[in-house]
Amino acid sequence: MSASKTTKPIKPAGYLIALFIVGMLCGAGVAMLEAVTGTGWLSSRTGLIAIFVVAAILVVSAFWLGARWMKSIDEAAQEAHKWSWYWGGSVGLAAGMVLIFVGSLPMGASLQVASWFDGRTDPAAYMATGAVGIVGLMMIGYLLAWALWWFQRR
């Protein structure tokens, strides 16, 4: 039998702090590039590539830290998070789908939805607004399901 690789437990705050530090370093890197190269580079193709790289670093870091954190918690906590994400996230997604269906009806054309990106009214801004809204609903569902899971077992 091979020895399973154990992950040294770190308190949950440690993982959040680590992700915060990665985010701060990425943000500082973008700010430094802006200061060195001059203003306006973020609107160029180079800026788009730089933001893509920074976002990829943040996503990979979040997945890596999340996987390490999940391995470090006990089985009951793991099950609570899996159950909460499945059921709470599914209910949140279903609620978002109801809003999408209502918005796609002919009478939904009169709805005025503000983009979360100041002054932008292009389709990409509205798509990103909807995606953030759906993920937000899924997170609310997850948090409510997680609280319900632990409340039922106390």
Secondary-structure map:
Blueprint: H1 12-37, H2 45-72, H3 75-104, H4 123-152
Keywords: Membrane, Transmembrane, Transmembrane helix
Transmembrane segments: 12-33, 45-65, 85-105, 125-151
Protein name: MotA/TolQ/ExbB proton channel domain-containing protein
Describe the structure in your own words:
Keywords: Membrane, Transmembrane, Transmembrane helix. This is MotA/TolQ/ExbB proton channel domain-containing protein. The chain crosses the membrane at residues 12-33, 45-65, 85-105, 125-151. By secondary structure, this protein is mainly α. It folds into two domains: 10-72; 75-154, no CATH class. It has helices at 12-37, 45-72, 75-104, 123-152. Helix 1 (12-37) packs antiparallel against helix 2 (45-72) and helix 3 (75-104) crosses helix 4 (123-152). The protein is flat. The model has no long low-confidence stretch (mean pLDDT 83).
